[in-house]
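STRUCTURE:
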């Protein structure tokens, strides 16, 4: 972080329902928001990090704060289906519209990208081809993505942790498609709406291999239904290999067997998009980030 930049004030928006938060804590020891908070505190030492659960009926910002008082908002993954009209999805989309209107830059992964898409007028659907379970393979930046600061340092093709059953169907008007692969057309995008800007990815740079394994276990029935596993035991065998690589990230045999390279196994490289967003915010400031690419 630029030494001239005062400590950041970040807000993590965790749109998991209370039931999903509990299931994730029972599985891997932390909710999606708690994972984000841990990563942000390491990427931006000294930052003040607050959290909110916008899907909850009693969601509220900390007393005395407002969205304009934050340097950035981070949207986590979530099992919400944004094409369903429910109180939880309405509250979450309304929250994101308020973030856009406040002019506060935002970053999000997985459902975070989907929330920003719907809030700005795009659409989301169930995956048209197949769920991406464990890892998104051969993500390729578009021409715009190759020069966009969000993907700085990423190679011409890379893998990333991913597990999702929904995808962006159509980006909002004026959005920039930054990356895709053969399974999911929208893997990274920039969205501008009502004076605000959002950088996001469909995959999960923030999660480690232990969390990938936990997600596979929680969603094993979905893998079986999609034909990606013949039974829960297949999903468990895959999760065990990923867990083993998490414990010993230097094991080339496991990385080879799983088809993974340092873009996933090296945390510094895996976190590229989050680090790039924070570095752009530090270098350019809030107003400068809003102006990038205009």
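SEQUENCE:
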């Amino acid at each position: 972080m630029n030494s001239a930049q005062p400590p950041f004030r970040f807000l993590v928006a965790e749109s998991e329902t209370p039931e999903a938060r509990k299931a994730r804590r029972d599985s891997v020891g932390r909710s999606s928001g708690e994972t984000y908070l841990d990563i942000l505190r390491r990427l931006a030492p000294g930052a003040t990090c607050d959290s909110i659960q916008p899907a909850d009926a009693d969601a509220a910002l900390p007393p005395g704060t407002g969205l304009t008082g934050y340097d950035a908002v981070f949207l986590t993954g979530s099992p919400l289906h944004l094409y369903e009209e429910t109180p939880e999805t309405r509250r979450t989309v309304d929250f994101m519209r308020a973030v856009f209107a406040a002019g506060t830059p935002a970053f999000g992964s997985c459902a975070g990208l989907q929330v920003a898409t719907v809030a700005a007028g795009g659409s989301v659907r169930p995956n048209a081809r197949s769920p991406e379970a464990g890892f998104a393979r051969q993500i390729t930046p578009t021409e715009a993505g190759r020069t966009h600061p969000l993907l700085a340092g990423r190679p011409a093709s890379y893998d990333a942790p991913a597990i999702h059953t929904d995808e962006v169907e159509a980006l909002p008007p004026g959005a920039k498609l930054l990356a895709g692969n053969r399974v999911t057309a929208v893997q990274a995008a920039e969205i501008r709406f009502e004076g605000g800007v959002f950088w996001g990815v469909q995959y999960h740079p923030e999660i480690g291999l232990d969390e990938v394994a936990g997600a596979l276990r929680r969603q094993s029935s979905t893998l079986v239904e999609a034909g990606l596993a013949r039974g829960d035991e297949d999903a468990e065998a895959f999760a065990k290999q990923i867990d083993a690589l998490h414990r010993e990230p230097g094991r080339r045999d496991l990385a080879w067997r799983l088809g993974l390279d340092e873009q996933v196994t090296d945390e510094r490289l895996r976190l590229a998009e989050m680090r790039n967003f924070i570095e752009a915010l530090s270098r350019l400031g809030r107003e400068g980030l809003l102006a990038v690419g205009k």
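REMARK: The mean pLDDT is 92.
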